[in-house]
């Protein structure tokens, strides 16, 4: 399992997780990886962090931490049952496709990790920007269906 972050113009760190992510585990990622990344790319505090509603993301400890750091960057609250609001799913699909097309395919977990890091770094900025630019359309579609799942 991996954790990742990106912005309109650049990919952030790709973090390898050794175990299933819990709220406490997520809390260990936020200050070290998210906060430092956002501090560098959005030192003005105008950055916007978006995540899905996975259980660790919505945990009390993570929610409290994000509230405590709201002056450092904004947090986009993803509506429940709206995975189409998360561009990271599209990016992960592209990574999966790239891994599946590798020849030879990864044979060991370390090979997979190496390939994932390589592919993560190879994603062109325009690829990422296309997904970020789609957010107004995704939000409009979500508003049209009053928060229900969309076909976006």
From TrEMBL:
<protein>
    <recommendedName>
        <fullName>Tc1-like transposase DDE domain-containing protein</fullName>
    </recommendedName>
</protein>
<dbReference type="GO" id="GO:0003676">
    <property type="term" value="F:nucleic acid binding"/>
</dbReference>
<dbReference type="InterPro" id="IPR036397">
    <property type="entry name" value="RNaseH_sf"/>
</dbReference>
